[in-house]
Amino acid sequence: MAIDGLIVLDNAGRPIVQTSFQSTSPAYPLIHIDAYSNALAKVSRPEDVDPVLYVAGIDDTKRSACCHVGCGGLRLLCPVSGDIDPLFALAFLRTFIDILQEYLGHVSASTLRDNFDVVYQLLEETLDSGGHPLTTSTNALRDIVIPPSLLNKLLSVAGANISSLSAASSNPFASPIPWRKANVRYNSNEIYFDVVEELRAVVGRNGVSLSNDVLGKVDTNCKLSGTPDMLLTFTNSKVLTDCSFHPCVRLPRWSRDKALSFVPPDGHFILMEYRYSPSSSANPSTLGVHQVPVPVMVKPSVVINESGGTIDVTVTSRLTTRAIEDFSLELYLGQGAGAPNFMVSGGGSWAFDPRSLTLRWEMANMPASSSHSLRGSWSSSVPHPRPARAFRTKFAIQQHTFSALKIDQLRVSGEQYKPYKGVRGRSLVDIEWRW
Amino acid sequence: MSTQAGQDAKFFQRGKIQEFRAELQAAEVKDKKFIKRKTVLKKIVANITMGNDMSPLFHDVVPCLGTPLLEIKKMVYLFLVSYGKSKPNEIHLVIPRFLEDCNDRNPLIRALAIRTMSYIPIPVVTEALTEQLRHCLKDRDPYVRKTAAICVAKVYTADPRKAEKAGFVEMLRDLLVDPNATVVSNAVAALTEIGDRTDGVFFKLNLSIANKLLAAIGESSEWGQIYILDSLLRFVPERHSDAEMLAERVLIQLNHANSAVVLTAIKILLYLMNYMDNRRLIEHICKKMGPPLVTLLSSGPEVQYVALRNILLIIQRRPTVLRNDVKVFFCKYNDPIYVKLAKLEIMYRLAREENAKEVLAELQEYASEVDVDFVRKAVRSIGRLAIKVEPAADLCIKALLDLIETKVTYVVQEAVIVIKDIFRRYPGKYEGIIPTLCEHLDALDEPEAKAAMIWIVGQHADRMDNADDLLDDLVYTFLEEPVEVQLALLSASVKLFIYKSKSEKAKELVHRVLKWATEDIDNPDLRDRGFMYWRLLAINPGIAGEVVLAEKPAITTDSDRMDRGALDQLLLHTGTLGSIYHKNPETFIRNAAGRALTDTPALNPNSRAVLVQVARTQLPPTAVNIPGPGPNEPRSRKPEPPLPAKPAPPLPGEDGDAEEGGGGDEEENGDETEAVLRPVAVQGDDPYAGLDQLGALGGAGYSADNPKPKGDEDLLAF
Fold it and tell me: How would you classify the pairing of strands A260-262 and A229-234?
């Protein structure tokens, strides 16, 4: 159960940073980079490369696999040669990306190059040369690798030795809890919960949803001093199904009385993820018996002829009180599409991306119960164009959750202060609407 | 960001060794707070990461270890990690520094020192490390202990005998009950690594240790949890109750946010279920496993892919899992192609009478998409659905005919291939559509589709008035056709002759084809078959008819299921590469240890009946059993002699047909020819290739496709 190392490629496929690949030949990482670029050359869309590539190796005895994920134009490769869980490698890659994001803010080839020393230290601390992940909780990492900050840069230019002041904390991992830093202090103690739910649905030609899923997560920002022990209860916990939790949550307590008992990490983290299905109390395993109503109505009409086609789509909001925000609707028009000529009524703007051959209609705000439409035509250099069979529409609804999940109370023990608590709801919708 | 950009990027300029050396020497004096030294080292490390050889600076960099600054030490250690291995003659110079750091006050430095030493597998270093490690494994600081635990595995790799002599394995065992969870999980990781070596000690857990490990899970990092969960495979339950008790404790881990933890937990549950007796508990666990698997599908596409490949295995072994959730696997238009293909396969597996209509509607939708590969698979799945779910066959045929009307060539060809199989599955039911198929004869240019069409014509020549004309046209290009088509033509013309022996045209046709096959063709299969038919017809056309038009073995979907024993074995690798490629890892991964269920009194009788034995290649003579503290449990009895091999080899003709569509009408030897013709796909190219090969491993009639409502899937097997 160990991965062989990690390679970060820039968008041209050149390695930027890689681990030292102790136990393998120097050619080993190169073979994997090759395998990835060969696979990339074979597919039309970069996202179609198999996430677990089989790598034949130089001779028959050196077969291995290459797991990879993309992030901000970068590609992170993770060669594995033993029979390990590819999810282990993929989960590690994701975690590493999260750490980079936490440290660098924005992850890209240039930020990586600018902070290579930090990245290198992070690699050393998160993955030992034998391929075992070491410390991956950012709370603990900050004790041993100092995040780059403007202040740090200024101080080091000014000649002050910041690292001896803040870093080499003589007692790393002093905290008995691996995910929480010890001795955190804040002047005002606050904790915020963002409940974000996403509805993903496929709607058939007849306007009936074929599959329909609401996934929610509780995004938490914790700024509390000391070691607070929290107890969070919901008034309607039975709307939650298939919950998964941050490691800090005491699972036995949850399975006993549906209360979240935890000592939170410091800063941002995702406390829990869940699925909401309205039928949960009746029959948790059957999806789609009772579905979440889709908050918009799309009336599509697409006509295809020899040399192009016409589109007429009307979108109506079914919400009566809230506005829909950041609305977008996309359709791939097929090989050879061009000369788009469209008109919107009711607001928004349309655009055609000639590279991805996708028509996109955007609206920043769509008032409650309003109706909007897009019509027009395009032509195609290929006879009988084959556009995508479905429109893809995405939007957000503020201050709204499908599950109406409600926090009952939050109790803090182990510390004296009374924290400020904030809760906010938001919904995202991603629908595929077939025509 | 761009305002500061380039601050560190400048270090990436190609540096010159001499320049750095001079700078390092200059830094020896008047270096306030070691700023200069730090800058040079940073440049050197930057060059190492770029792949520039900095090893000539060895003698200049090593003295910097004396600097009492962690950041500098770290960079020197980075340098040593990169070049230490290549300096076997100079490395002794560093050893005193190492020893100094091993006894530093700062635990970070102590850990750094042993970690770096463990990366340099040179005897002097290993020697020194062995000495230090003994203290570090008992260090008062958990960070040092956890680092030391991992170092043991490295020492073991460098020199197994020395590590055993030093008693490290026993010390690791003691760490399994360490109060710090991270230390425990690292000890488990190290023991696992040692235990996985073919020459390593045998790592086995007893019940009390397994329980203690599970207790440590709550406080471990996600990686630690994975190590601990995975190590539970090394616990062999002797009693049903042990397995049941552990499973209940593992069950709550299914709520973890980390996808790898979830999948590892599922692996353990699947393993433990083999040792359980309580049907209700088994059912309960199966029910609990579904939702977390579905949750994995809401993650990124790469996680979805791994999850889907595993779900495909799990639902074959435990059909109650997810049996009502086929909708979850409906493809989204924007899913990457590998996700779509994997979903399609699962949709087919989950299809049964109740949901066949929904599934078919989806498949029809996919058949009109843009991606050629996906469309083909979708069309093929419609055909397989017709074969699998009899009540849906009518609708499927109608759907296929609609698709043929689209006149998209690859859709038509794919449809013809599957319709051939449907004819074989339901003889005499759908022959009415043959004229429609014949209208599209000209569209067929792929060998497989052509061969399928020819088979249809030949097989039903008695019911088609124009069969001889059609075949006459098709035979026209006989000599240019690929072997697959030639074989089909040969058989079809023989059938035509048998059906219409009075017809001069048929006689002339079969004569022409037999002559070509035996005189102008180099392919031995084709020639042999030509001679055989010729003689058969010459000696007794009546008997030839009985042979050529003999009852075909019925096509079923049984053959594309895996053998139960092989499944049980593969499921021990749930989540691992083996489960992605559907092959046992020792067949394609170096150093992979084979896994097999161990037979104990608690082993489920059904699992025992299909038990596959794996021999551990060679046990070291000095095998050390690690029972762990606590009462020793009886060691598992010596493996029973392997059960007699499965009696029934897979029925010829069944294997590829349902999935691949046979090449022609050939009876027995048709299959062999096909095996020659169709090279076995490399698993990297086609993830589904492994399925067929595994199907060939054995032919136990495990009917995973028709779960009974009770969910007693184990009873179904026998």
Answer: antiparallel
Helix (H, G, I), strand (E, B) or coil at A131: coil
Residue B477, in any domain of the structure: yes
- The reply to whether B504 and B581 lie within a common domain is no
The one-letter amino acid code at A11 reads N
Distance in angstroms (rounded) separating the CA atoms of residues A160 and B26: 20
pLDDT at A24 over 60: yes
My answer on whether B543 and B569 are in the same domain is no
Residues B493 and B591 in one domain: no
Residues of A in contact with B157 (CB under 8 A): 23
Domain housing B583: 561-609
Structure tokens at B316: 């074959």
Question: Is B519 part of a structural domain of the chain?
Answer: yes
Kindly state whether residue B538 falls inside one of the protein's structural domains: yes
- Contact by Cβ (8 Å): A139, B230: no
pLDDT per position as a tens digit, B553-584: 666 665 455 666 677 766 766 666 666 666 66
Number of separate domains in chain B:
2
DSSP line for B481-503: S-HHHHHHHHHHHHHHHHHTTT-
Confidence band of B382 (pLDDT split at 50, 70, 90): very high
pLDDT tens digits, residue range B324-368?
888 889 988 888 888 999 999 999 989 988 889 989 999 998 888
Examine the domain organization and report whether B518 and B451 are in the same domain.
yes
Q: What confidence category does residue B693 fall into, taking pLDDT thresholds of 50, 70 and 90? A: very low
DSSP 3-state assignment of A349? strand
CA distance A389 to chain B (A): 7
Asked if pLDDT for residue A167 goes beyond 60, the answer is no
Return the sign of the alpha-carbon dihedral for residues A395, A399, A405, A409: positive
- Both B453 and B536 in one domain: the answer is yes
The complex scores an ipTM of 0.83
d(CA B335, CA B343): 10
Q: Which of the listed residues B553, B584, B618 is the one where a domain comes to its end?
A: B553
Q: Look at residues B609, B640, B673 and tell me which one is the last residue of a structural domain.
A: B609
Dihedral of alpha carbons A200, A205, A208, A211, sign: negative
Between B22 and B305, name the one with better pLDDT: B305
- Per-residue pLDDT tens digits for A341-394: 898 888 888 999 888 888 999 998 888 888 999 989 998 888 878 888 889 999
Domains in chain A, CATH or no CATH each: 7-141 (3.30.450.60), 190-291+402-434 (2.60.40.1170), 296-398 (2.60.40.1170)
**Mean pLDDT of the B670-684 span:** 34
| This prediction's pTM | 0.78
In this structure, the answer to whether residues B546 and B565 fall within a common structural domain is no
Secondary structure element (H or E) that encloses residue B608, with its range: helix B605-609
Do the chains contact at A105 and B585, CB–CB below 8 Å? no
Residues of B in contact with A48 (CB under 8 A): 336-338
The residues in B 489-548 lying below 8 A from A, measured between CB atoms, are none
Query: Does residue B572 share a domain with residue B537?
Result: no
Query: Given B81, B108, B256, which is nearest A244 (Cβ)?
Result: B256
Within 240-299 of A, beta carbons closer than 8 Å to B belong to 241-247, 250-252, 254-255, 270, 272-273, 275, 284-288
The verdict on B588 and B494 lying in the same domain is: no
Instruction: Establish if A211 touches chain B: CB-CB under 8 angstroms.
Output: yes
